[in-house]
Amino acid sequence: MDTILVNQLPVRTWNRLGVNETALPWDQAASRELEQTHIAAKAGGQETVRLSVQGEGEYSEKSVVVDAAEGSRVTVYEDLRSRQHLLVRTQMKVGPGAKVRLVQLLGTEQDTVLRNEVSGTCQQEGSVELLQVLLGRGDVYTDSRFTLKGDGSALTADMGYLGQARQVLDMNLVVDHYGKKTASRIDASGALKDAAKKIFRGTIDFKRGSSDSAGSEQETVLMLGEDVVNKTVPLILCAEENVAGNHGATIGELDDDTLFYFESRGIDRQTAENILARASIERLARAVGDREIEEKIINGLNEEL
Amino acid sequence: MAENKEKTYVEDVDRSVYDIKDVEHDAYRMEEGLTPAIVDKLSKEKNDPVWMQQFRLQALQIYHELPVPDWGPSIEGLDMEHIATYVRPNTKMQNNWENVPRDIKDTFERLGIPQAERKSLAGVGAQYDSELVYHNVKDSVAAEGVVYTDMESALHGEYADMVKKYFMKLVTPRDHKFAALHGAVWSGGSFVYVPKGVHLSIPLQSYFRLNAKGAGQFEHTLIIVDEGASLHFIEGCSAPKYNVANLHAGCVELYVKKGAKLRYSTIENWSKNMYNLNTKRALVEEGGTIEWVSGSFGSHVGCLYPMSVLKGDNSRMEFTGVTFAGAGQNLDTGAKVVHIGRNTSSYMNTRSISKSGGISTFRSSVVVEKGAKGAKSAVSCQSLMLDSESRSDTIPAMDIRTRDAAIGHEAKIGAISNEAVFYLMSRGMSEEDARALIVSGFADNVSKELPLEYAVEMNNLIRLEMKGSIG
């Protein structure tokens, strides 16, 4: 059994905070490689692909490659469900003016581990829209890295999660701005119940030369359990003058004003907390734009709450 | 005639008054390096009690065990084998400026210390290289039972037991490598005790001047503000620039007892050959308040993160800071807070400016322990980059272990806003004046928290020269 380091911060900070990276036991030698999926869209074309990956055996890994040629539109729906230990790597090459939409439903059964690695490089005016929903009972380690290489390229990332029981949700998202007039928006929101542990690392990195670029990052965490642990590490790294970067984080439980609003309408605290815990994931479910995936998300929510 | 448009720029901090070097007339200079023999010799020079001698040697051992941190700015240019850890000036500590050797006195006169003492301070400690050369407290303040003395006197006199009880218990040698170094070779600094219920309406100040080339300064500041008392303590520092490294690894330990309040203000203006690896920590009891006001303008490499432990229920922390990183500087600054008691609150408000290739990093840590019900914390960090040669990084972290907490964080980075400039210009201001106003206002969060004389000094350090228009 090996111990691997995953979800590494681009710039280290105090070691005693335990946020620089995560050490994860993982038997690489035992991992079975599943058949690679290659999705290619020709110039100006459109592709929509659905993938359902469940893993085989104790350790398995799957690679998905998305190649979006110039001006193409690609939508990939990934339903990833770990039964034991599953690693899924999705790599995207986004050509000039191409748009890739990646919707991921990251589900885990109890006592299982899902590793999700996403990477993408965008050429001029290319863009990626990433939508991730973390729902289940096992541990999820998701590491997403994007390079906005071409001028005018963009990333939007929306992540929603519900952590419960003793679940570990470990998220890392890095976007490197290289081109001029590149844009990124990261929005992560979710709820933590019981004794769930969650860490979200979000990095916006403006490299020299990325003038007139903008990046924003927002995280909202609803703390609902007595034994939850939340770690939030929002980084902005900047080597370019003419950029605008900002980040914000709001962490806490149901505030008194919101609770009063619900109770004055006959809704008790527990129900109010469930409504809000569902809210961030329901919002993403509606944004998916696909009935099948939307139903899976809502059904998953109904099972958990 | 065509107008000659001149590029607008923010002038570098003016250092001329700080860069004057005194000829070194040291009474004693320790050989360079760091060995048990050197630490033992230092201990004998200072006539340490036995416990302190043993403490130093244990700290040295810990120093050799601990690694250099694997994060933060590089300190490769710091070679402890070429640092003299103890330099004693050719004078004993005086309580009258007339008795201080002329060259040293003139240095402090240029820095404005005696004048400030006369005008607006309750007491002053002035350290030159490794020892205090002047220490005085107003009679009226001493009459209230306030103790303000040098650490060496406190170690031997009637407060010896108190010092032993508190010394390096908040910042221990095991904290990090340079805390261990401090424990081994510390010298100078101040001990302050404010009795219960005593409120000092005017500040105490310590000023640290490192004149010796290739030397280190390792002063220790220990302040205890007893129940219901209050104090404003100001520290300042400077050094002339040399072409070899100097090191500052001081330590500040602050104990804020029940219902007490302590404001700790610092204007840091070390020279650009200085490695500033300072450690500051406050322990706040029930209902107590610690306020940090911090201006960082000097050093070649700086690592400075005042930390507050909010141990008591209803304890509070406020941190207000500004950092200016210019050419050749890598300043890694910020703050840390740990919420332990119930209904504690913390607020951080920082600004940073980078120019001419300077690197400014804001680094923070907010930890809320499981029992810290009702904790509130807000962090606001704004960074201004004045050119694309420079760098500005924001590295905050939050670790929250109770649901009963309200935590907020925001950060912004960017250049001077064109919209703000346009707004001011539409009201009749020139572009040059508009940009000057914006930049000077950006650092206002710290200057407005300082006594007027220190705000003026701080603003002098950020002097803006605006000519023509931004090109």
Describe the fold and architecture.
- The complex is a heterodimer of chains A (305) and B (471).
- Chain A is mainly beta and 305 residues long.
- Helices cover 14% and strands 54% of the residues of chain A.
- In chain A, helix 2 (269-288) runs antiparallel to helix 3 (291-304).
- Chain A is globular, with a radius of gyration of 19 Å.
- With 471 residues, chain B is an alpha/beta fold.
- Chain B has twelve helices and 25 strands.
- Chain B has helices at 36-45, 50-65, 102-110, 113-120, 139-143, 151-156, 160-166, 177-185, 418-426, 431-442, 444-447, 452-461, and strands at residues 28-29, 87-88, 123-128, 131-137, 147-150, 190-194, 204-209, 216-217, 220-225, 230-238, 246-248, 251-256, 261-269, 274-277, 279-284, 289-296, 301-304, 307-310, 316-325, 330-339, 345-354, 359-368, 375-385, 391-400, 405-414.
- In chain B, a hairpin with a 2-residue loop joins strand 3 (123-128) and strand 4.
- The longest helix of chain B has 16 residues, at 50-65.
- The radius of gyration of chain B is 22 Å and the shape is globular.
- The chains are: A mainly beta (305), B alpha/beta (471).
- Greatest interface (CB-CB under 8 A), with counts per chain: A-B, 44 and 38 residues
What percent of residues of chain B adopt helix (DSSP H or I)?
10-25%
Shape of chain B: globular
Q: Note the total helix count of chain B.
A: 12
Q: Distance between the terminal alpha carbons of chain B, to the nearest Å?
A: 19 Å
Overall mean pLDDT of chain A stands at 95
Please give the domain count of chain B.
2
Biggest sheet record of chain A: 9 strands, parallel
> How is the biggest beta sheet of chain B arranged?
13 strands, mixed
Helix content of chain A: 10-25%
- Tell me the β content of chain A: over 45%
